[in-house]
Amino acid sequence: MKGKRIITVIILFIFFLLPSNGFSAPDNTLQSRLDAVPEGGTITLSSGQYVGPVVINKSITLKGEKGAQLIGNGTGSVLTIKGKNVTVEGLRIEKGGLNSGDGDALIRVEADGVVLKNNHMAKGYYGIHLVRCFNSQIIGNVIEGNEQDEIADRGNGIQLTYGGNHVLKNNQIKFVQDGIYYDNTTGIQTEKNKVENSRYGYHLMFSNKISLLQNRTFNSIVGTMVMDAVDVQIKSNVFQGQRDPRGYGLFIYETKDCEIENNILADNTNGMAFDGAMNTLISNNKVFGNDMGVKRVGDVIDSHFTGNAFIANVRQVGGKKAWPEEVWHKDQKGNFWDDYQGVDLNQDGVGDSPYRMADAMLRLMDLDPILSIFYGSPVQQLLEWIGKDQRVIDPYPLQISSTK
Amino acid sequence: MMAVARYEWQTMLRNRWLAAFALLFAILSSGLFYWQYAIYQGESGIGISKPTSILMNLVLQFVPLMSLILSAQSIAGDKGDGMLALLRSYQLSSLRYITGKWLGLCAAMTLSFVIGIGIPLLISLFFSSSSLLQLLTLFFEGILLIGIFSAIGLWLGGRMKGRMGAISSSLVVWFFLVFLYSMIVMIVIQYIPYLWKKPLLAGFLVLNPIEAIRIGSVFIQGQGELYGAEFVNWQRTLSGWKGIGVAFGLSLFYLFTPIGMAAKSLKKGER
User: Fold this and answer.
1) For residue B60, which residues of chain A lie inside 8 Å, CB to CB?
2) Interface contact B39-A375, CB threshold 8 A
3) Higher pLDDT residue, A313 or A27?
4) What is residue A9's predicted lDDT score, i.e. its pLDDT?
5) Is the pLDDT of residue A3 over 70?
6) ipTM given for this complex
7) What domains does chain A contain, in order, with CATH numbers?
8) How many domains does chain B divide into?
9) Nearest Cβ partner of B197 from A367, A370, A374?
10) Which helix (H) or strand (E) holds B140?
């Protein structure tokens, strides 16, 4: 009897000495399963929680069935991919580290040819961090930051650091700092993504050959910020509801060879802004319902607006610097202005007299920005009636909007 | 007091000026809504757009004009045709007489406003890009302006000897408050040290009900970013219930100050 008691006490003692997760099979075995699987193999995770961080070092596929979750310990990256041609699909990944200096991410990719598909990420610093790698496909992922965090404390949804030739498609991102951040990257195809309630939707820095097609940004500070970039295509996107006092649908800064075409810039504080734009073609965009349609912050060189529709903006065009006349048309095709007051007697679709913007208030605001409080007041209408501003002259104003 | 109000209401309904204003409002607002629909059809969800800003200006400019002219000439008419002298033979204080007249005038002009702007406004809700909040704000803005400028008109008319004097003084006051006042403020504010600019600007704007209503309605709708980064704090302060409280207090001030002044001015005339 006494011997049995001693054995029971010893067994209990050993049990309490073991680590608390010592017997929770899925948690403990994921890394070993990843290490054990052969090159080109597939691991399918059934519903349940799996403990991170884990590292994939070889070319495999990691699939999650419905309810499969990979949970980190709040430090470092939850899943680090170091093997080429890895596919990660259908996982929910949470609780990554929050250290911006270390580049903590929910998924950190350091190898080429990685496919990340239909994963759901939350509670980390970066959602996905691609570091010096090429040819990744980031498709259909959902990334959520913490709404309660200050914007400055949040990480970016998808961070691209060096490398390139990635495809980013159908991802949905919200409550982050920047939705997608391009840092010294090249050849990125960005298509049909959606970013909302963040700082910048798409933030390009020192990058080139970037295309943004059919993406959307809502309720952020800037829809797309392009800085020091070369060869950028921004087509058929929607940037709407950037209503912050510093809000812009699209901001182009020190950028060369940029095509901005068929986009909708609606209900922003400023539709578009340019500060150091070289060889930029802005065509067939709909600039609608913004406080200011287009703002000139700095130089605009060898650039042209053609076929755009400026509709229902409180101020169509503004900025401290005068716009060169040649900016407002290309090959004798101007833009549609809803407040154009001329006629088209020869019915060639182009107004018979140039479009001149009535905005004497802008000159007054140059004297004192506080005078902006008189925008929309009866006195503004009187001032505009007294004298028309000569800053914007479109010699070939279109009579019908060609934008959809 | 209610007898005076009833009498004023009945007289105003026969007033051709009132009908003319209603017609003018109806033509202008219907035209604006039509063109807004023709140009911007299918678009929605925008902030304070250009058409809405034009509509707001229409209300800000024409409602004070109508209210000032009609109320000033009404009281000047009472003085000219002996109605005021007759009423004075009854036990009726100047304040009750003015309040009665003001109520009758406001009721008649509100009817004119509802027919002229309100009905096209409501119809436009079904096919324009303006939101219900914007249209309701415009509507209440108009009714508030009728109340304030009827009271100012009564004060002006009470001080003038004939109808012509009443109409001329109304036009001068209208032009001053709608156009000149802002121009003067715009000039003065540039010579004020930066730290004093915003508090003084706020003071200047509050002193003119047209400016206060214009800016207040933008901030209360949460569209203050229209005025740029300089006024972010005003937006934060004035959006929501705090803004509504400030607007309510100021409205009472704008309404009762001229009514009191008009009654006092009439009482002084009696002696």
Assistant:
1) 377-378
2) no
3) A313
4) 54
5) no
6) 0.78
7) 24-394 (2.160.20.10)
8) 1
9) A370
10) helix B132-159
